[in-house]
Amino acid sequence: xxxxxxxxxxxxxxxxxxxxxxxxxxxxxxxxxxxxxxxxxxxxxxxxxxxxxxxxxxxxxxxxxxxxxxxxxxxxxxxxxxxxxxxxxxxxxxxxxxxxxxxxxxxxxxxxxxxxxxxxxxxxxxxxxxxxxxxxxxxxxxxxxxxxxxxxxxxxxxxxxxxxxxxxxxxxxxxxxxxxxxxxxxxxxxxxxxxxxxxxxxxxxxxxxxxxxxxxxxxxxxxxxxxxxxxxxxxxxxxxxxxxxxxxxxxxxxxxxxxxxxxxxxxxxxxxxxxxxxxxxxxxxxxxxxxxxxxxxxxxxxxxxxxxxxxxxxxxxxxxxxxxxxxxxxxxxxxxxxxxxxxxxxxxxxxxxxxxxxxxxxxxxxxxxxxxxxxxxxxxxxxxxxxxxxxxxxxxxxxxxxxxxxxxxxxxxxxxxxxxxxxxxxxxxxxxxxxxxxxxxxxxxxxxxxxxxxxxxxxxxxxxxxxxxxxxxxxxxxxxxxxxxxxxxxxxxxxxxxxxxxxxxxxxxxx
Amino acid sequence: xxxxxxxxxxxxxxxxxxxxxxxxxxxxxxxxxxxxxxxxxxxxxxxxxxxxxxxxxxxxxxxxxxxxxxxxxxxxxxxxxxxxxxxxxxxxxxxxxxxxxxxxxxxxxxxxxxxxxxxxxxxxxxxxxxxxxxxxxxxxxxxxxxxxxxxxxxxxxxxxxxxxxxxxxxxxxxxxxxxxxxxxxxxxxxxxxxxxxxxxxxxxxxxxxxxxxxxxxxxxxxxxxxxxxxxxxxxxxxxxxxxxxxxxxxxxxxxxxxxxxxxxxxxxxxxxxxxxxxxxxxxxxxxxxxxxxxxxxxxxxxxxxxxxxxxxxxxxxxxxxxxxxxxxxxxxxxxxxxxxxxxxxxxxxxxxxxxxxxxxxxxxxxxxxxxxxxxxxxxxxxxxxxxxxxxxxxxxxxxxxxxxxxxxxxxxxxxxxxxxxxxxxxxxxxxxxxxxxxxxxxxxxxxxxxxxxxxxxxxxxxxxxxxxxxxxxxxxxxxxxxxxxxxxxxxxxxxxxxxxxxxxxxxxxxxxxxxxxxxxxxxxxxxxxxxxxxxxx
Lengths: 511, 537
Description:
The complex is a heterodimer of chains A (511) and B (537). With 511 residues, chain A is of the alpha/beta class. Chain A has helices at 8-11, 131-139, 155-162, 211-219, 227-248, 251-255, 260-281, 324-340, 361-366, 386-390, 400-422, 488-498, and strands at residues 41-47, 60-63, 66-69, 81-82, 100-106, 172-175, 346-350, 398-399, 425-426, 429-430, 435-441, 464-469, 479-482, 505-506, 509-510. In chain A, the strands form four sheets. Chain A has an eight-stranded mixed beta sheet, with helices on both faces. A three-stranded antiparallel beta sheet of chain A has the order 3-2-8. Chain B is α+β, with helices and mostly antiparallel strands. The longest helix of chain B has 21 residues, at 278-298. Chains A and B meet through α4, α5 and α7 of A and α3, α4, α9 and α10 of B.
């Protein structure tokens, strides 16, 4: 693999946030170096969390009511280059140091002088967190209102389009947090991280929030071994097809007799049924090699109740948690096997929603006991929900360490997926060699987007961090790269290029 | 007079911060048909609750599969807003899984199967029995009369029953199961599709009896028509106002009507999932449901009593919780006298809604009153305010009232909007997040709560009782209740072109002395209920 010139030294000292900063080119290899015969896969995992807590510096915390000054907890606290030490959030990635690159110090531009929607700069954030950060982060396109909507196609869908027609599922879009959990409210757009061409509300891609249904959609199309099982499968497949045929045959009768607005709604529904039938009729995938039908996850964990979206006193046990841990692991299993079996080449997993009000307590209590997680030396159970933890909702436990521990839990799912991909042989290497897997938190930690004044804030699009794992397209991971305030979408573009994207833009951002 | 409805706002000082709910529903210019004659409607997908109720009534399915397998509905504040529904691959996959599971259970259970198939098949391929089953099942499922081609379309499924296949355990009921599964995935089942026939006015469509029956059942029961209603549709009874009126009256006697009224109020007033212990929530719900039942169904009279009732239905534990006298027989009506409470605003359910930061939020309670009871639009905070943080106020402020000082500071940009909300909330501050009376801020005896509130330029009050009276006396409650009801009934936000329609409905509500049940029946009996206008794009 021919590495390009390492330009980091040259770029050091460059100030400002030029959107087209070609910083990440160093991470990009020459094209077409993917292992022969293996397609490139792309996944993005999203955490509805910031990197620190309000008003706490990177090394400041309060644990069990005691103030603590201690480094090593902020995700990107260490030296740049290779051999960087793993901080608290990164501990699940132990042993995978050479499998991922961390790009820190990324920033989304905003207009410091005006909070008007028309004054948002190119690829910038509307001055209202959380909604204002969504579009630039995931689609490289500016937001012009507080609404949770991406105004352009998202990176995973660019890769999905690229591979259209080549796999049974164009993309796998899943979500672990099934409810918003705040009494009296619903998601209102916080549950979307994937958008099709053009973006906007009509381009939202609804994530499958049921692991059971996601499993079923992916793996009931497999032809089982054994003549009897195969014959039974054939019967069931034909029956399923006949049922859908029956429904689709009503299309004209129903659609032709209603007005145009109704037609559009019904057409969309019928189109989706037709797509389902096409997926079923596609050449049934065959088990073989590393491609196995994973175990049936069974019924979904029950969905937790609501709370008032607050801190320790009001987020009670039993509310705000639907075993997102198990749900995330099942989804990671499904993404892994969907990639191995080449059922899809693009995936997105929203572990927690934008402004997540998932109860933090079940995770905090179990940190270190949940497989793949590591309890920090100083750790006390954190109360409140994930969002309030970022805003110091627990009077006794706040600051960097609690935040880092909860971020670590999110990253444990990322590590779990990476470990599975790198443990699965493919084309003389591993599946991870032909994949690029992004992890992005919702927010950074720095200047508050809303007021543009307060420092060390979670509602910030500064000091953002993305992780990029895998060796698709010849990527050579294992570094901590200083983004020098580059737009986070530049990392996505680099990842998309590694997954075969020939362009060099995402929305309004160019590489 | 309807100044609030017509959008004429005389209060110049507050104009910058006031809007009317309904503008959001405006799109595409004026409707083709005067909303007084016929209201715009579109195809509506059954909400999770409606789908689960329908599966219960159609197939005896009592596991609420939609709530488990489908992504949650968005609430705005009602769960049935079809303008934000969007079909997706995730939805279709979930619906297929749901349909297969429900069909399997319906056919797998001997009793339910006997209910479903009213004949005994002579063999796996018994076409006559299959047709008999379809003739009984399909009209109920599709909520309309059948045509010959409807049944014929299902005939290919019979092949799966008759197929000679050594490895598959197939029989007649295999085809039944597939037919049920197909029907549950049929958009005609999943959506309420209204076609209608063109009337005298261009763009106006007259609904047929079955379409009217579904309108009635989903409005009154959140479920499908029962056999009686279905028969009435077939007989043409529902084509006349009298026919609709008498059927609606019958339907009100069904427990499903109560459940639906409870659901409507819980979504409207924001207490559908309040964050307290299950025991307390259950007690609150019994209290609030009892009041709703009483003022609408059990004791005919003015609906305004929902807000002015001078007693409340509680058990011993809730009496202790509120500090009210215990009821005579473990559970019953207890007078509020001297407590400052009245009606539903005195209930823990309402007082628990819209809390924030582990305490009551004067701002959020003010927003609740403005948006849900006065039907006004309260704008979002300006972007440079981080509303996720509680107000800090003066650096050394301990008491909540002082922490909210910035909201009152006329020199700051906050006061313009917060003067609309906070003074309302502060008038309810003596009632905590669980509806208990308190003299001071939680845990801070030095912070004595004064408890006086104001609806700016309307009047001042102290406590839920006086607030309710103020809202009633100034015609907010009846006006807004009608608008909320219409939003719920239409499954979408109302728009500015419908202001006159709402005015007319409010007049009729008043003319009927605020009898809510009579008002709903009148709405159902009205000509416009049996019509629709096609949506603009």
